[in-house]
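Exam review. A common question shows you a sequence with its structure tokens and asks you to describe the fold in words. Practice with the pair below. Do the first one on your own.
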Amino acid sequence: MKKADVKVGAILAGKSEEELKKPFQGKVEKIYENSALLAITSYDPVDETAISDLNHKIVVNFKNLKTARVAKNSKTAATNEVKVEKVKSAVKKQDEEDSKDKK
């Protein structure tokens, strides 16, 4: 992959010949002259310890990057997404219990 093809925020597939045994996916956080800093978002469970040691970040040479596809049998790193449905159902359940208590 060429530097011009790499954009901050893009999800790319990568491989690391030294650090990780299997390919992974990551979100581009910073672009350097010949490489990019990726926040690892999806990886093979066999690399879990190494990913943790890297704090879910890795610098990868452009030649080891390509456009990402959905990975099978991979572990997805935690995200900060909040599931609103769960919150709503918990609030609704509490409201129902409060209504029963008032009767």
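Now try the second one, then compare your answer with the model answer below.
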Amino acid sequence: MSELVPAIEARGISKYFGAVTALESVNLRVMPGEVLGVVGDNGAGKSTLMKVLSGLHPPSKGELLVGGQPVHFGSPRDARNRGIEMVYQDLALAGNLRIDENIFLGREQVRRLLGIFPVVNHKANARHAQEHLDKLKIHVKSVQQRVEELSGGQRQAVAIARATAFDARVVIMDEPTAALAIKEVRKVLDLIKDLKTHGISVILISHRMDDIFYVCDRVMALFHGRNLAEAPLAETDRNEVIGWIMGNKSRADVPQGMDLN
């Protein structure tokens, strides 16, 4: 029965910024181990919704549930404590720090010096970082490499590793392949697919139809801050999804030959 309970669910979420309505009665649900694609034009409300789900913005109206239980996030830390992690487009990694230091930044394992003074246990952090990278099939020369020495795809993989290192239920990703070379895109998408095998749910914001149709199980579209449409990937196609982005529910309304990458 637990598999029938969404990992995270939003019911009737609205968000107002003064007189501006960013979201109006938006619903979203993601099942355990599911990859949900979220599409929409600029200003559709995608980023605002993700910031509500990750605790950055409190909703003006509506309800959030994690594992079927109502939750109230006062900050991103509250969301992380319930297993909701966000990987932003700029990654927010510290380039001058090592891979293992980035993965455990702010959550380092410590040991007691002379049984009293807490100091960072670098050996334990490095060991556990390597074990976590191995579990996710992320290959780097050494966990002691500085992040600034990595390629774009490797940095994205480290950001995903950091997000999943502490019992994540749901990982939200904002355009994870937008700045990557073509050869690195597939590696990141395969990593997202691999998260499913660990029971981790993923919410993927992307403008790239190739990404959506390669990795997602289901896709939903927002338009002007509202739900427009959603469907399993097996029951839709690129033209229909592109039509949703444009605000059309009918496949016939999509100009022939139009595609987004």
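Model answer, second protein: The two ends are 38 Å apart (CA to CA). The helical segments are 46-53, 76-81, 99-103, 122-135, 152-163, 182-197, 209-215, 238-245. Full marks require stating both points clearly.
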